[in-house]
Amino acid sequence: MSAVMNKNEQQVQQWRDDFPILARQVHGKPLVYFDSAATAQRPRQVLAAMDDFYQNHNANVHRGVHSISGEATDLFEAARRKLATHINAASEREVIFTRGSTEAINLVAQAYLRPLLQAGDEILISHMEHHSNIVPWQLLREQTGAVLKVIPVTDQGELDTQALPGLINARTKMLGLVHVSNALGSINPVREVCALARQHGVTTIIDGAQALPHLQVDVQALGCDFYSLSGHKMYGPTGIGALYGREQLLEDMPPWQGGGEMIRTVSFEETVWNDLPAKFEAGTPNIAGAIGLGAAVDYLQGIGLDAIAAHEQDLLSHASAALQQIDGLRIIGQARNKVSVISFVIDGVHPHDLGTIVDHHGFAIRTGHHCTMPLIKRFGLPATARASLALYNTRNEIDRFIPALKQACDMLR
Ligand SMILES: *Cc1c(COP(=O)(O)O)cnc(C)c1O
Fold it and tell me: Fewer beta carbons below 10 Å: N end or C end of the chain?
């Protein structure tokens, strides 16, 4: 690293210092973590919040009259309020803690949509969905005889919005769309799509797992009915995420899972559900996870999503240009509006072999289908390599990646 750092580099170095794992080595080389779209790293602020909970306030929530149960409940509910404010939900009752995006989408499929569906009703999703926004609807198709329709994706990796109006009709009951593609980085025009859906009375669910780490999300401005997010993609813990839902929809829905926490009274004859959001949170929740997610929200807000986006856009253009130095390299996903996720293939080189070799230089990249098999197949490929860049990555890391890639190509071709 050069002795003199400019202001921007100093700032990024400060952010990097928050992430203890970035100090470690892999195969004797400094770790370069280019796999944040699979799971981001956690800053010490998040680790400290979880540690503090377990060390000083651990108790079950919403139950005990004793002091530390009250403290645990306060911390847990404060995390919910932070998240609700962060995404501009109208109220914290609209934020349901789940295990992640996957569970949030399954909740909507089973508790919201299933009771409303009749055979022949249609569910519309896009060709760039993560498996977690495909398979829950396929399960529902088997259970109800509903029909799954798919909005195409252009060769550039953008949603084919021209095709959209022709795919919505009176039988369309749900539209599911990824906000930001984890495989291509494309940012979808969610506001416009939700507006069109609303005109047709179609309920919308946006998979926001990949948006929260890069963008300031405002669910009311987007105009969606449901929105899912994942803690571990946004510098928070694994095993925690959330479903945002408009209050009226959540009120009208039956519960999903039954158990403790989600009830007000239980008798063998009749059980009365609890109010929102507890109605959808059966069992002891991931309390430490929620608190860690709240700390991740604080962390993102402390830096500011504008500052993060500016840095990541600089990395994206730097990396996109630098990668052109590799013979036969093709970037898959050239959306005009994209985040710092770069999928690529190289002629004559299998992504898996590439990933293995660059790992020996300390680079953690993803190879495979990225849980988007239909999308990768749409581009006529079995797999891609993917470098996903986060707030703690640097131009210098990208500059070191290029020779590692060249060396791998020399070995493999
Ligand atoms: C990671 C991811 C998911 C799944 O989220 P989990 O929290 O791991 O369940 C869904 N959609 C997208 C776009 C993702 O990147």
Answer: N
